[in-house]
Design goal:
Structural class: mainly alpha
Distance between the termini: 134 Å
Radius of gyration: 27 Å
Number of domains: 2
Strand order of the largest sheet: 3-1-4-5
Order of helices and strands: HHEHEEEHHHHHHHHEHHEHHHHH
Number of helices: 18
Helix content: 55-70%
Oligomer: single chain
GO cellular component, one term: membrane
Shape: globular
Main location: membrane
GO molecular function, one term: heparan sulfate 6-sulfotransferase activity
Keywords: Glycoprotein, Membrane, Signal, Transferase, Transmembrane, Transmembrane helix
Strand content: under 5%
Membrane topology: Single-pass membrane protein
Length: about 500
Protein backbone atom coordinates (compact mmCIF):
# COMPACT_ATOMS: atom_id res chain seq x y z
CA UNK A 1 0.00 0.00 0.00
CA UNK A 2 1.24 3.49 -0.81
CA UNK A 3 2.87 5.20 2.20
CA UNK A 4 0.78 8.35 1.69
CA UNK A 5 -2.43 6.29 1.66
CA UNK A 6 -1.42 4.47 4.86
CA UNK A 7 -0.74 7.80 6.55
CA UNK A 8 -4.13 9.16 5.43
CA UNK A 9 -5.96 6.12 6.82
CA UNK A 10 -4.12 6.47 10.12
CA UNK A 11 -5.18 10.12 10.39
CA UNK A 12 -8.79 9.18 9.69
CA UNK A 13 -8.75 6.53 12.41
CA UNK A 14 -7.22 8.94 14.89
CA UNK A 15 -9.79 11.56 13.98
CA UNK A 16 -12.65 9.12 14.46
CA UNK A 17 -11.28 8.03 17.83
CA UNK A 18 -11.02 11.62 19.02
CA UNK A 19 -14.54 12.35 17.77
CA UNK A 20 -15.98 9.32 19.58
CA UNK A 21 -14.24 10.24 22.82
CA UNK A 22 -15.46 13.81 22.58
CA UNK A 23 -19.00 12.73 21.80
CA UNK A 24 -19.07 10.48 24.86
CA UNK A 25 -18.00 13.30 27.12
CA UNK A 26 -20.60 15.65 25.69
CA UNK A 27 -23.42 13.17 26.28
CA UNK A 28 -22.30 12.24 29.77
CA UNK A 29 -23.25 14.41 32.79
CA UNK A 30 -20.50 16.96 33.18
CA UNK A 31 -19.05 15.51 36.35
CA UNK A 32 -15.55 16.05 35.02
CA UNK A 33 -16.27 19.54 33.74
CA UNK A 34 -13.68 20.93 36.12
CA UNK A 35 -11.14 18.24 35.33
CA UNK A 36 -8.24 19.24 33.13
CA UNK A 37 -5.24 17.14 32.13
CA UNK A 38 -3.66 17.45 35.58
CA UNK A 39 -0.28 15.97 36.27
CA UNK A 40 -0.91 12.79 38.22
CA UNK A 41 2.60 11.60 39.06
CA UNK A 42 3.01 10.86 42.75
CA UNK A 43 5.75 13.39 43.48
CA UNK A 44 3.72 16.25 42.04
CA UNK A 45 0.56 15.10 43.82
CA UNK A 46 2.28 14.75 47.18
CA UNK A 47 3.73 18.26 46.99
CA UNK A 48 0.41 19.72 45.86
CA UNK A 49 -1.68 18.04 48.56
CA UNK A 50 0.77 18.87 51.35
CA UNK A 51 0.95 22.51 50.26
CA UNK A 52 -2.83 22.80 50.19
CA UNK A 53 -3.18 21.10 53.58
CA UNK A 54 -0.50 23.29 55.17
CA UNK A 55 -2.15 26.44 53.86
CA UNK A 56 -5.59 25.29 55.05
CA UNK A 57 -4.38 24.42 58.54
CA UNK A 58 -2.76 27.84 58.94
CA UNK A 59 -6.01 29.72 58.34
CA UNK A 60 -7.13 31.71 61.37
CA UNK A 61 -10.40 30.94 63.06
CA UNK A 62 -12.66 32.82 65.46
CA UNK A 63 -11.20 33.41 68.90
CA UNK A 64 -14.34 32.06 70.57
CA UNK A 65 -15.72 29.32 68.35
CA UNK A 66 -18.56 28.63 70.82
CA UNK A 67 -20.10 32.08 70.34
CA UNK A 68 -22.47 32.73 67.43
CA UNK A 69 -21.10 35.23 64.90
CA UNK A 70 -23.02 37.73 62.79
CA UNK A 71 -23.52 35.16 60.01
CA UNK A 72 -24.58 31.54 60.49
CA UNK A 73 -23.35 29.31 57.64
CA UNK A 74 -25.14 25.95 57.62
CA UNK A 75 -22.91 23.68 55.54
CA UNK A 76 -25.54 21.19 54.40
CA UNK A 77 -24.03 17.80 53.59
CA UNK A 78 -26.59 15.98 51.36
CA UNK A 79 -28.68 13.23 52.95
CA UNK A 80 -27.89 14.08 56.55
CA UNK A 81 -31.26 15.60 57.52
CA UNK A 82 -30.19 19.19 56.94
CA UNK A 83 -33.37 20.01 55.08
CA UNK A 84 -35.34 19.23 58.23
CA UNK A 85 -33.14 21.52 60.30
CA UNK A 86 -33.60 24.31 57.77
CA UNK A 87 -37.39 24.12 57.69
CA UNK A 88 -38.08 23.12 61.28
CA UNK A 89 -35.39 25.07 63.15
CA UNK A 90 -33.84 27.86 61.13
CA UNK A 91 -37.05 29.08 59.54
CA UNK A 92 -38.56 29.23 63.00
CA UNK A 93 -35.71 31.50 64.08
CA UNK A 94 -34.91 33.69 61.07
CA UNK A 95 -37.26 35.70 58.90
CA UNK A 96 -36.69 35.19 55.19
CA UNK A 97 -35.51 38.78 54.92
CA UNK A 98 -32.53 37.74 57.06
CA UNK A 99 -31.64 34.85 54.76
CA UNK A 100 -28.89 35.23 52.22
CA UNK A 101 -30.51 34.63 48.82
CA UNK A 102 -30.27 30.86 48.64
CA UNK A 103 -28.74 28.97 45.79
CA UNK A 104 -27.38 25.47 46.19
CA UNK A 105 -25.10 25.89 43.21
CA UNK A 106 -23.58 29.37 42.86
CA UNK A 107 -22.88 32.23 45.23
CA UNK A 108 -25.35 35.08 44.74
CA UNK A 109 -24.88 37.65 47.46
CA UNK A 110 -22.64 40.60 48.17
CA UNK A 111 -20.92 40.56 51.60
CA UNK A 112 -20.99 44.37 51.74
CA UNK A 113 -24.79 44.56 51.93
CA UNK A 114 -26.92 44.31 55.05
CA UNK A 115 -29.65 42.10 56.51
CA UNK A 116 -28.15 38.73 55.66
CA UNK A 117 -27.66 36.58 58.73
CA UNK A 118 -28.27 32.99 57.53
CA UNK A 119 -26.72 31.05 54.68
CA UNK A 120 -27.90 27.48 54.02
CA UNK A 121 -26.32 25.71 51.07
CA UNK A 122 -24.83 22.49 49.67
CA UNK A 123 -21.71 24.48 48.82
CA UNK A 124 -18.57 23.08 50.42
CA UNK A 125 -16.27 24.78 52.93
CA UNK A 126 -14.56 26.73 50.14
CA UNK A 127 -17.55 29.08 50.46
CA UNK A 128 -15.68 30.55 53.43
CA UNK A 129 -13.33 32.24 50.96
CA UNK A 130 -16.33 34.47 50.09
CA UNK A 131 -17.36 35.18 53.67
CA UNK A 132 -15.96 37.30 56.52
CA UNK A 133 -14.29 34.43 58.37
CA UNK A 134 -14.00 36.20 61.72
CA UNK A 135 -17.74 37.03 61.75
CA UNK A 136 -19.03 33.68 60.50
CA UNK A 137 -20.05 30.62 62.50
CA UNK A 138 -20.29 27.28 60.71
CA UNK A 139 -22.57 24.37 61.64
CA UNK A 140 -23.03 21.01 59.95
CA UNK A 141 -24.45 17.50 60.38
CA UNK A 142 -22.66 14.27 59.47
CA UNK A 143 -24.03 10.79 58.89
CA UNK A 144 -22.72 7.24 59.05
CA UNK A 145 -21.03 6.79 55.64
CA UNK A 146 -22.76 3.51 54.74
CA UNK A 147 -26.21 4.91 55.53
CA UNK A 148 -25.40 8.08 53.58
CA UNK A 149 -24.42 6.08 50.48
CA UNK A 150 -27.66 4.10 50.75
CA UNK A 151 -29.67 7.30 51.12
CA UNK A 152 -27.88 9.04 48.24
CA UNK A 153 -28.53 6.07 45.96
CA UNK A 154 -32.19 5.87 47.01
CA UNK A 155 -32.84 9.59 46.58
CA UNK A 156 -31.16 9.62 43.15
CA UNK A 157 -33.51 6.83 42.07
CA UNK A 158 -36.54 8.40 43.75
CA UNK A 159 -36.19 11.77 42.01
CA UNK A 160 -35.28 10.19 38.66
CA UNK A 161 -38.31 7.89 38.85
CA UNK A 162 -40.64 10.91 38.86
CA UNK A 163 -39.80 11.37 35.19
CA UNK A 164 -41.10 7.92 34.26
CA UNK A 165 -44.58 9.43 33.78
CA UNK A 166 -43.24 10.49 30.37
CA UNK A 167 -43.28 8.12 27.39
CA UNK A 168 -39.55 8.43 26.76
CA UNK A 169 -36.36 10.12 27.92
CA UNK A 170 -36.48 12.84 25.27
CA UNK A 171 -39.95 13.92 26.36
CA UNK A 172 -38.97 13.94 30.03
CA UNK A 173 -35.82 15.97 29.40
CA UNK A 174 -37.58 18.54 27.21
CA UNK A 175 -40.44 18.99 29.68
CA UNK A 176 -38.07 19.50 32.58
CA UNK A 177 -36.09 22.05 30.56
CA UNK A 178 -39.25 24.01 29.65
CA UNK A 179 -40.51 24.10 33.22
CA UNK A 180 -37.15 25.20 34.60
CA UNK A 181 -36.84 27.99 32.03
CA UNK A 182 -40.21 29.41 33.10
CA UNK A 183 -39.49 29.46 36.82
CA UNK A 184 -37.42 31.91 38.81
CA UNK A 185 -36.37 29.41 41.43
CA UNK A 186 -33.83 26.63 41.67
CA UNK A 187 -34.93 23.03 41.15
CA UNK A 188 -33.42 19.76 42.27
CA UNK A 189 -31.78 19.51 38.85
CA UNK A 190 -29.91 22.76 39.57
CA UNK A 191 -28.64 21.67 42.96
CA UNK A 192 -25.31 20.02 43.60
CA UNK A 193 -24.89 17.02 43.64
CA UNK A 194 -28.30 16.11 42.24
CA UNK A 195 -27.70 18.01 39.00
CA UNK A 196 -25.22 15.22 38.20
CA UNK A 197 -26.74 12.20 39.93
CA UNK A 198 -30.38 12.58 38.89
CA UNK A 199 -29.85 12.93 35.09
CA UNK A 200 -27.47 9.96 35.23
CA UNK A 201 -30.03 7.83 37.05
CA UNK A 202 -32.91 9.13 34.94
CA UNK A 203 -31.17 8.01 31.75
CA UNK A 204 -30.48 4.60 33.29
CA UNK A 205 -34.11 4.10 34.41
CA UNK A 206 -35.47 4.87 30.95
CA UNK A 207 -32.94 2.51 29.35
CA UNK A 208 -33.98 -0.33 31.65
CA UNK A 209 -37.69 0.34 31.10
CA UNK A 210 -37.16 0.37 27.34
CA UNK A 211 -35.26 -2.90 27.64
CA UNK A 212 -38.15 -4.52 29.51
CA UNK A 213 -40.63 -3.35 26.88
CA UNK A 214 -38.38 -4.62 24.08
CA UNK A 215 -38.12 -8.06 25.70
CA UNK A 216 -41.86 -8.07 26.30
CA UNK A 217 -41.44 -9.25 29.87
CA UNK A 218 -42.01 -7.51 33.14
CA UNK A 219 -40.75 -10.37 35.30
CA UNK A 220 -38.16 -9.45 37.91
CA UNK A 221 -35.84 -12.24 38.98
CA UNK A 222 -34.57 -10.84 42.28
CA UNK A 223 -36.40 -10.15 45.53
CA UNK A 224 -33.65 -7.74 46.64
CA UNK A 225 -34.66 -4.17 45.67
CA UNK A 226 -30.99 -3.15 45.70
CA UNK A 227 -30.24 -5.74 43.02
CA UNK A 228 -33.16 -5.58 40.57
CA UNK A 229 -31.22 -4.94 37.40
CA UNK A 230 -34.33 -5.25 35.24
CA UNK A 231 -35.78 -2.01 36.62
CA UNK A 232 -33.03 -0.04 38.38
CA UNK A 233 -29.24 0.12 38.54
CA UNK A 234 -28.08 -2.33 41.24
CA UNK A 235 -26.33 -0.80 44.22
CA UNK A 236 -23.14 -2.78 43.57
CA UNK A 237 -22.93 -1.21 40.09
CA UNK A 238 -23.78 2.26 41.38
CA UNK A 239 -20.94 2.40 43.91
CA UNK A 240 -18.35 1.38 41.29
CA UNK A 241 -19.39 3.90 38.63
CA UNK A 242 -16.97 6.81 37.95
CA UNK A 243 -19.72 9.33 38.71
CA UNK A 244 -20.21 7.89 42.20
CA UNK A 245 -16.45 7.76 42.66
CA UNK A 246 -16.23 11.47 41.81
CA UNK A 247 -19.21 12.78 43.77
CA UNK A 248 -20.56 10.32 46.35
CA UNK A 249 -17.64 8.53 47.97
CA UNK A 250 -15.87 10.40 50.77
CA UNK A 251 -18.31 13.20 50.04
CA UNK A 252 -18.52 14.35 53.65
CA UNK A 253 -14.76 14.71 53.96
CA UNK A 254 -14.40 16.50 50.64
CA UNK A 255 -17.27 18.86 51.44
CA UNK A 256 -15.96 19.79 54.89
CA UNK A 257 -12.45 20.17 53.45
CA UNK A 258 -13.73 22.29 50.52
CA UNK A 259 -12.66 19.89 47.76
CA UNK A 260 -15.85 18.87 45.95
CA UNK A 261 -16.24 19.33 42.19
CA UNK A 262 -18.41 22.31 43.17
CA UNK A 263 -15.55 24.06 44.98
CA UNK A 264 -14.76 27.75 44.63
CA UNK A 265 -11.01 27.16 44.94
CA UNK A 266 -9.24 26.52 41.65
CA UNK A 267 -6.62 24.18 43.12
CA UNK A 268 -9.23 22.01 44.85
CA UNK A 269 -10.00 19.91 41.77
CA UNK A 270 -6.43 18.84 41.22
CA UNK A 271 -5.98 18.14 44.93
CA UNK A 272 -9.10 15.96 44.94
CA UNK A 273 -7.98 14.00 41.89
CA UNK A 274 -4.56 13.39 43.42
CA UNK A 275 -6.17 12.07 46.62
CA UNK A 276 -8.48 9.82 44.62
CA UNK A 277 -5.49 8.46 42.71
CA UNK A 278 -3.15 7.99 45.70
CA UNK A 279 -5.23 6.77 48.63
CA UNK A 280 -2.81 7.50 51.47
CA UNK A 281 -2.61 11.19 50.51
CA UNK A 282 -6.14 11.40 51.84
CA UNK A 283 -4.71 11.55 55.36
CA UNK A 284 -3.75 15.18 54.72
CA UNK A 285 -7.31 16.00 53.62
CA UNK A 286 -8.70 14.16 56.64
CA UNK A 287 -6.52 16.24 58.96
CA UNK A 288 -7.89 19.46 57.44
CA UNK A 289 -11.49 18.23 57.65
CA UNK A 290 -11.05 17.30 61.33
CA UNK A 291 -9.71 20.77 62.14
CA UNK A 292 -12.65 22.34 60.33
CA UNK A 293 -15.05 20.32 62.49
CA UNK A 294 -13.13 21.36 65.61
CA UNK A 295 -13.64 25.02 64.68
CA UNK A 296 -17.40 24.76 64.09
CA UNK A 297 -20.07 26.11 66.42
CA UNK A 298 -22.07 22.88 66.21
CA UNK A 299 -21.60 19.39 64.74
CA UNK A 300 -24.66 17.12 64.71
CA UNK A 301 -25.09 13.43 63.91
CA UNK A 302 -27.98 12.10 61.84
CA UNK A 303 -28.08 8.85 63.81
CA UNK A 304 -28.32 10.72 67.12
CA UNK A 305 -31.41 12.56 65.98
CA UNK A 306 -33.04 13.48 69.28
CA UNK A 307 -29.85 14.42 71.05
CA UNK A 308 -28.63 16.40 68.02
CA UNK A 309 -31.90 18.33 67.79
CA UNK A 310 -31.90 19.14 71.50
CA UNK A 311 -28.30 20.30 71.34
CA UNK A 312 -28.92 22.38 68.22
CA UNK A 313 -31.76 24.18 69.98
CA UNK A 314 -29.62 24.87 73.05
CA UNK A 315 -26.32 25.68 71.31
CA UNK A 316 -27.50 27.46 68.16
CA UNK A 317 -31.15 28.30 68.75
CA UNK A 318 -30.58 29.88 72.16
CA UNK A 319 -27.86 32.17 70.80
CA UNK A 320 -29.95 33.21 67.79
CA UNK A 321 -32.84 34.08 70.08
CA UNK A 322 -30.54 36.04 72.37
CA UNK A 323 -28.75 37.80 69.52
CA UNK A 324 -31.71 38.78 67.36
CA UNK A 325 -34.72 38.76 69.66
CA UNK A 326 -34.20 42.18 71.18
CA UNK A 327 -35.21 44.25 68.16
CA UNK A 328 -38.73 42.96 67.61
CA UNK A 329 -41.66 45.18 66.60
CA UNK A 330 -45.11 44.54 65.20
CA UNK A 331 -44.36 46.43 61.99
CA UNK A 332 -41.19 44.45 61.36
CA UNK A 333 -43.00 41.21 62.11
CA UNK A 334 -45.72 41.99 59.58
CA UNK A 335 -43.22 43.01 56.93
CA UNK A 336 -41.15 39.91 57.49
CA UNK A 337 -44.21 37.67 57.44
CA UNK A 338 -45.11 39.01 54.01
CA UNK A 339 -41.53 38.53 52.91
CA UNK A 340 -41.53 34.97 54.15
CA UNK A 341 -44.70 34.11 52.26
CA UNK A 342 -43.17 35.34 49.02
CA UNK A 343 -39.97 33.36 49.64
CA UNK A 344 -41.45 30.10 50.82
CA UNK A 345 -42.66 27.25 48.62
CA UNK A 346 -44.35 24.27 50.20
CA UNK A 347 -42.51 20.98 50.01
CA UNK A 348 -45.73 19.28 49.07
CA UNK A 349 -46.13 21.25 45.86
CA UNK A 350 -44.11 21.12 42.69
CA UNK A 351 -44.65 21.41 38.97
CA UNK A 352 -45.26 17.90 37.71
CA UNK A 353 -43.37 16.66 40.77
CA UNK A 354 -40.17 17.36 38.88
CA UNK A 355 -39.07 20.60 40.50
CA UNK A 356 -38.53 21.30 44.16
CA UNK A 357 -36.32 23.26 46.52
CA UNK A 358 -37.27 26.48 44.76
CA UNK A 359 -35.30 29.49 45.89
CA UNK A 360 -35.88 33.19 45.35
CA UNK A 361 -34.06 35.41 42.90
CA UNK A 362 -34.53 38.43 45.07
CA UNK A 363 -32.11 41.25 45.56
CA UNK A 364 -28.71 40.31 46.82
CA UNK A 365 -28.32 40.88 50.52
CA UNK A 366 -25.61 40.47 53.06
CA UNK A 367 -24.30 40.23 56.53
CA UNK A 368 -25.76 42.65 59.04
CA UNK A 369 -24.15 43.85 62.22
CA UNK A 370 -26.14 43.31 65.44
CA UNK A 371 -27.46 46.87 65.56
CA UNK A 372 -29.00 46.71 62.06
CA UNK A 373 -30.78 43.35 62.12
CA UNK A 374 -34.50 42.83 61.86
CA UNK A 375 -36.44 40.89 64.42
CA UNK A 376 -36.20 37.23 65.14
CA UNK A 377 -39.59 35.49 65.06
CA UNK A 378 -41.19 36.50 68.32
CA UNK A 379 -39.60 36.07 71.71
CA UNK A 380 -39.71 32.29 71.84
CA UNK A 381 -37.84 30.22 74.38
CA UNK A 382 -35.71 27.20 73.57
CA UNK A 383 -38.49 24.98 74.89
CA UNK A 384 -41.00 26.61 72.55
CA UNK A 385 -38.55 26.21 69.67
CA UNK A 386 -38.35 22.47 70.37
CA UNK A 387 -42.14 22.19 70.49
CA UNK A 388 -42.40 23.95 67.12
CA UNK A 389 -39.69 21.63 65.77
CA UNK A 390 -41.63 18.52 66.85
CA UNK A 391 -44.80 19.69 65.10
CA UNK A 392 -42.89 20.68 61.98
CA UNK A 393 -40.85 17.51 61.62
CA UNK A 394 -43.92 15.32 61.87
CA UNK A 395 -45.63 17.17 59.03
CA UNK A 396 -42.48 17.28 56.92
CA UNK A 397 -41.84 13.56 57.30
CA UNK A 398 -45.38 12.73 56.22
CA UNK A 399 -45.00 14.87 53.11
CA UNK A 400 -41.65 13.30 52.24
CA UNK A 401 -42.95 9.77 52.85
CA UNK A 402 -45.95 10.32 50.58
CA UNK A 403 -43.77 11.72 47.83
CA UNK A 404 -41.32 8.85 48.14
CA UNK A 405 -44.08 6.21 48.04
CA UNK A 406 -45.62 7.79 44.95
CA UNK A 407 -42.27 7.96 43.18
CA UNK A 408 -41.11 4.42 43.96
CA UNK A 409 -44.38 2.94 42.65
CA UNK A 410 -43.05 3.71 39.18
CA UNK A 411 -40.20 1.24 39.64
CA UNK A 412 -42.21 -1.46 41.42
CA UNK A 413 -41.44 -4.01 42.80
CA UNK A 414 -38.26 -2.19 43.92
CA UNK A 415 -39.05 -0.62 47.28
CA UNK A 416 -36.24 0.72 49.44
CA UNK A 417 -36.72 0.17 53.17
CA UNK A 418 -34.50 -0.25 56.21
CA UNK A 419 -35.53 -3.88 56.32
CA UNK A 420 -34.53 -4.34 52.68
CA UNK A 421 -31.06 -2.97 53.41
CA UNK A 422 -30.44 -6.04 55.54
CA UNK A 423 -30.48 -8.14 52.37
CA UNK A 424 -27.48 -6.35 50.88
CA UNK A 425 -24.47 -8.71 50.99
CA UNK A 426 -21.68 -7.98 53.44
CA UNK A 427 -19.26 -7.89 50.51
CA UNK A 428 -21.06 -4.83 49.10
CA UNK A 429 -21.10 -3.14 52.51
CA UNK A 430 -17.38 -3.73 52.86
CA UNK A 431 -16.79 -2.20 49.42
CA UNK A 432 -18.72 0.89 50.53
CA UNK A 433 -16.56 1.15 53.66
CA UNK A 434 -13.36 0.91 51.64
CA UNK A 435 -14.55 3.42 49.06
CA UNK A 436 -15.46 5.82 51.88
CA UNK A 437 -12.47 5.24 54.15
CA UNK A 438 -12.01 8.98 54.77
CA UNK A 439 -15.65 9.46 55.70
CA UNK A 440 -15.49 6.48 58.06
CA UNK A 441 -12.63 8.11 59.97
CA UNK A 442 -14.20 11.58 59.89
CA UNK A 443 -17.46 10.23 61.26
CA UNK A 444 -15.65 8.59 64.18
CA UNK A 445 -13.99 11.92 64.89
CA UNK A 446 -17.35 13.71 64.69
CA UNK A 447 -18.79 11.27 67.23
CA UNK A 448 -16.11 12.32 69.73
CA UNK A 449 -16.80 16.00 69.04
CA UNK A 450 -20.51 15.37 69.56
CA UNK A 451 -19.94 13.62 72.89
CA UNK A 452 -17.71 16.44 74.16
CA UNK A 453 -20.15 19.04 72.85
CA UNK A 454 -22.96 17.32 74.73
CA UNK A 455 -21.01 17.30 78.01
CA UNK A 456 -19.99 20.92 77.61
CA UNK A 457 -23.49 22.14 76.74
CA UNK A 458 -25.53 20.32 79.34
CA UNK A 459 -22.77 20.39 81.94
CA UNK A 460 -22.76 24.19 81.82
CA UNK A 461 -26.56 24.43 81.77
CA UNK A 462 -27.03 22.14 84.74
CA UNK A 463 -29.75 19.59 85.28
CA UNK A 464 -32.53 22.07 86.01
CA UNK A 465 -32.06 24.22 82.92
CA UNK A 466 -31.44 21.22 80.68
CA UNK A 467 -34.67 19.66 81.92
CA UNK A 468 -36.58 22.85 81.21
CA UNK A 469 -35.31 23.19 77.66
CA UNK A 470 -35.50 19.56 76.55
CA UNK A 471 -38.78 18.24 75.13
CA UNK A 472 -37.60 14.69 75.16
CA UNK A 473 -38.03 14.18 78.88
CA UNK A 474 -34.42 13.43 79.80
CA UNK A 475 -34.55 16.08 82.51
CA UNK A 476 -37.97 14.92 83.63
CA UNK A 477 -36.61 11.40 84.09
CA UNK A 478 -33.86 12.76 86.31
CA UNK A 479 -36.40 14.69 88.36
CA UNK A 480 -38.69 11.67 88.66
CA UNK A 481 -35.82 9.50 89.80
CA UNK A 482 -34.78 12.10 92.36
CA UNK A 483 -38.33 12.46 93.66
CA UNK A 484 -38.64 8.70 93.97
CA UNK A 485 -35.45 8.51 96.00
CA UNK A 486 -36.64 11.32 98.29
CA UNK A 487 -39.96 9.56 98.85
CA UNK A 488 -38.20 6.29 99.64
CA UNK A 489 -35.90 8.02 102.12
CA UNK A 490 -38.88 9.77 103.70
CA UNK A 491 -40.77 6.48 104.00
CA UNK A 492 -37.71 4.81 105.55
CA UNK A 493 -37.36 7.70 108.03
CA UNK A 494 -41.03 7.43 109.04
CA UNK A 495 -40.71 3.66 109.40
CA UNK A 496 -37.61 3.91 111.62
CA UNK A 497 -39.21 6.53 113.86
CA UNK A 498 -42.33 4.41 114.16
CA UNK A 499 -40.22 1.44 115.22
CA UNK A 500 -38.48 3.56 117.84
CA UNK A 501 -41.78 4.78 119.26
CA UNK A 502 -43.08 1.23 119.38
CA UNK A 503 -39.99 0.07 121.26
CA UNK A 504 -40.38 2.87 123.86
CA UNK A 505 -44.02 1.98 124.45
CA UNK A 506 -43.12 -1.69 125.09
CA UNK A 507 -40.45 -0.66 127.60
Amino acid sequence: MDLTLKFSILLLLLGFGCYSWGSYNLSTPSVSANASPFRNDFGHCERLVKKWASSSLEQEVKEDKHTLGDLLFFLHVPRTGGRTYFHCFLRKLYYSSLECPRSYDKLRFDPRKRHCRLLVTHDDYSMMSKLPRERTSVVTILRDPIDRVFSTYEFSVEVAARFLVHPNLTSATQMARRIRSKTKGVSTLDIWPWKYLVPWMREDLFARRDGQEHRGSGDVQSSDPYNMEEVVMPLHEYIKDPIAQEIVHNGETFQVAGLTNNSYLSESHEVRHCVQRYKHLGEHVLEVAKKRLDDMLYVGLTEEHRESATMFANVVGAQVISQLGGSNSSEESAANSNSEQSYSVSDSKSDNNELRDRTPNGKESEIASPDTVEAVKGNMTVGELMEAYEDCISSLRNTQANRRTSSLKRISPANFTKQARLQVPEMVLQQIRELNHLDVELYKYAQNIFANQHKRTFGIMGVGEGMQNSTYGAGIKVLSLGATLVLLLLAFYVFVNAQRRTSKVKI
